[in-house]
Amino acid sequence: MPQLNPTPWFFTMLATWVTFSLIFQPKLLTFVTMNPPSSKPPTIPNVTPWTWPWT
């Protein structure tokens, strides 16, 4: 069965992985996130329960 022969597909997978690792990954890692994580503790909002008129 020809689809089980890894010879033509292994080089394609290897070339794609090398291209991603050497070209795209360094460019993606240089981007600065728009919402960087902060070291502040999360604030808990003061929530008051809703008073229902029929209860």
UniProtKB/TrEMBL annotation:
Keywords: ATP synthesis, CF(0), Hydrogen ion transport, Ion transport, Membrane, Mitochondrion, Transmembrane, Transmembrane helix, Transport
Membrane-traversing stretches: 6-24
Organism lineage: Eukaryota, Metazoa, Chordata, Craniata, Vertebrata
GO cellular component: mitochondrial membrane; proton-transporting ATP synthase complex
Record InterPro entries: ATP8_metazoa, ATPase_protein_8
Biological process according to GO: proton motive force-driven ATP synthesis
Record-level Gene Ontology MF annotations: proton transmembrane transporter activity
Principal subcellular localization: mitochondrion
Protein name per Swiss-Prot or TrEMBL: ATP synthase complex subunit 8
Annotated compartments: Mitochondrion membrane
Family: Belongs to the ATPase protein 8 family.
Gene: ATP8
